[in-house]
Model the fold of this input.
Amino acid sequence: MPSATAGSSSMAAPDSVIDWLLNSDASIRWQVMRDLLGAPESEYQAERARVETEGWGAQLLSCEDADGQWAGGAFLPRDFDFREWREVGQPWTATTFVLSQLREFGLDPACERASRAVELIGANSRWDHAGEPFWEGETEECINGRVVADGAYLGVEVSALAGRLAGERLADGGWNCERANGSVRSSFATTINVLEGLLEQERATGGTRELKRARESGEEYLLERNLFRRASTGEPADEQFLSFVHPCRWHYDVLRALDYFRSAAALTGASPDPRLGEAVEHVRSRRLQDGTWLLDRQLPGRVWFDVDEGAGKPSRWVTLRAMRVLSWWDRAA
Done:
């Protein structure tokens, strides 16, 4: 497992880390106020409203095309050549990845810019796969999970797509984008993408019995594996699951999974499952003596702009997520 020097006797005072987080973008500040400081809703919502007009949120919105898309495409930029994917990495500038990032920033779904984007994307954006309308999804569960998450968050009617995902579970309880190609084993990455979508749909609509059963089934898939282990051998399924990546895009790590379970508990009132404990303690062990967490890796590929200082450096995003996961876990202990 990756490790970092950590020691409670010399750990930085929490206030200094909070100040460091607050000395950042509005997209981080409002979540610190809500999740770490317990600020009144009126205060953190006022800060959240700045995402539309200031900093990273406004910068990302300024990159929107006249037709409501980003980079001229749903999944791939208009000018994309697959040589770029091979030589540089997957590009992250098209519409689907921008919407997920705006959701992470906390753009108010009721704001004018969000409403405009929803309407224009519905009218103009089509999937690269076969020209399917954007909000109806395409064929891959990993992509459709994010469409449901972004759509439900933005107030789009995505119940049919969510129901389709519920019916695409594999026998082991999770999901895999390669199901259509014959895969019968679930994927950690696809499963977390679908779970986040189903949770957002439940938060927006109250969910249905079928969707809740599907979400609980996917959660059990991850819990049976302690969020990162193979069911067959108990060995880590992928060592990168134990390193912290941001933005996650469609990728998986244990911190993303833990933050999902924290978010789900906030909606359902469920207590933390003991099987999360190993992953929680791994996150705790990665805390540096100054009280921050490092960004272990960045995904290669085209982006509009960076929101972290770079791999190997302290990350406000990773630190925010780690601190709120540990706060949630420790309160329930």
Notes: Residues 188-205 form the longest helix (18 residues). The CA atoms of residues 192 and 257 lie 7 Å apart. The two ends are 25 Å apart (CA to CA). Residues 1-10 have pLDDT under 50 and may be disordered.
